Amino acid sequence: MKITINGKETNSGAFTNLEELVAASVTKIDGLVVELNGKIVRKNQWKEQILKDSDKIEMIQFVGGG
After folding, report:
1. Is residue 66 assigned to a domain?
2. 10 Å Cβ neighbour count for 61?
3. For residue 22, what is the domain's CATH number?
4. Which of 58, 49, 56 is nearest to 15 (CA)?
5. HSE-CB for 10 with a 13 A CA cutoff
6. Mean pLDDT of the region 30-58
7. Number of Cβ within a 10 Å radius of residue 51
8. pLDDT grade, residue 63 (50/70/90)?
9. Confidence category of residue 66, pLDDT binned at 50, 70, 90
10. pLDDT at residue number 48
11. How far apart are CA 37 and CA 11, in angstroms?
12. Between vectors from CA 39 to CA 33 and to CA 45, what angle results, nearest 5°?
């Protein structure tokens, strides 16, 4: 299955849902926003979002600083 993560196409047959993909992709989920095919997906819905071929995922991490 080919999906696009942050603009890069990848083969991602190891992940069945968005929660698994996020867990393998980032170390800290605080301040993380995930968009699937142009729509923001809330954290409590990640497990229910089954990944499909050609999905486009954007992960944006907000950080504080000064």
Report:
1. no
2. 12
3. 3.10.20.30
4. 49
5. 15
6. 96
7. 17
8. confident
9. low
10. 96
11. 17
12. 65
How is residue 29 written in tokens? 């989920």
Amino acid identity of residue 38, one-letter, is G
Residue 25 DSSP label: H
Q: What is the DSSP letter of 44?
A: G
Number of domains in the chain: 1
User: Token match 């809330």: residue?
Assistant: 42
Give the structural domain span for 41.
2-61
Instruction: Count the Cβ atoms, other than its own, within 10 Å of residue 19.
Output: 19
What pLDDT is recorded for position 3?
94
Q: What span, in angstroms and rounded, lies between the C-alpha atoms of 2 and 45?
A: 21
pLDDT digits 0-9 by tens, 1-29: 899 999 999 987 788 999 999 999 988 88
Structure tokens at 10: 């990848």
Give CA–CA dist 13/66, Å, rounded.
Answer: 40
